[in-house]
């Protein structure tokens, strides 16, 4: 299995019947392919597919000189966006964007806790802030990594499994 589910590239050849694209177009292939069989796909809601096939897990990824991409899942890259930055949009930016905008519906003043400030989490902090939220991550100031965004607010980690029980344990040291 070829790895690589965040990619950007230039179209070198179109498959039979593909329209709307041309050789030389700069594109981002989708990081997944809808199953085309589930009830969401049958209604045309491909982005809500219940059995999404992930690139580099269900089929070969793009860590290769050439990759065959599904035409309907590609996004055109604007001329002013560098290819290496565009590649991140397929997952490390689009996933946290959906979490902030669609799932979390973050808006002005919302507290947003981010566990794991890696590739996705770093972008989630920035997107939550753009949405008006107040992002925080469970890192102390002495353990905060240099890769964590400087505008995230460190919070003390706790063993609580839910944010509400974490809040209780922070405000009441005797509470478990
Ligand atoms: Zn589906």
Automatic annotation (TrEMBL):
Gene3D superfamilies, sorted: Medium-chain alcohol dehydrogenases, catalytic domain
Keyword Oxidoreductase set for record: yes
Keywords tagged on the record: Metal-binding, Oxidoreductase, Zinc
Taxonomy, superkingdom: Bacteria
Pfam family membership, one: ADH_N
Region (Disordered): 136-157
Domain Alcohol dehydrogenase-like N-terminal: 1-79
PANTHER family found in the cross-reference section: L-THREONINE 3-DEHYDROGENASE (PTHR43401:SF2)
Name the record gives this protein: Dehydrogenase
